[in-house]
Amino acid sequence: MTKTNRGFAFFIAILFIFTMLISACFIVTESDHDCIGENCLICGQINICRRTSHPVCAVLSVFVFAALSGAIAVSSRFNLQSPADAFSLVTLKVKLSD
User: Fold this and answer.
1) CA–CA distance, 84 with 27 (Å, rounded to integer)
2) Which of 5, 35, 68, 85 has its Cα between 20 and 30 A from that of 62?
3) Percent of the chain residues topping a pLDDT of 90
């Protein structure tokens, strides 16, 4: 990946994050506005922001679920041994000689 492509990808990622942040802030600040009814412009903008952020939230939830399940699988792999199984003659390096 060239330096120009890397810089462009970084710029697009920052722009995307900025858009999601501004959309979330707009939804939070305008959620209790004085609605005029069916043709409310603010409600229309809130719906646009929700439609924009909904697929991103779905993808993020999948990644978070995958990361947590992976972390649980790795941690359970190391915690499967009971304390009785952890100590054996080999692990304690006991020499059985007469």
Assistant:
1) 55
2) 5
3) 4
Q: Is residue 8 scored above 70 in pLDDT?
A: yes
User: Which token pair is 79?
Assistant: 């915690």
User: For residue 1, how many C-alpha atoms fall within 13 Å in the half-sphere facing its CB?
Assistant: 6
**Distant-in-sequence, close-in-space partners of 27: CB < 8 Å, separation ≥ 6:** 46, 49, 50
- Helix 3-29 vs helix 41-78: crossing angle, to nearest 10: 120
CA distance 39 to 45: 11
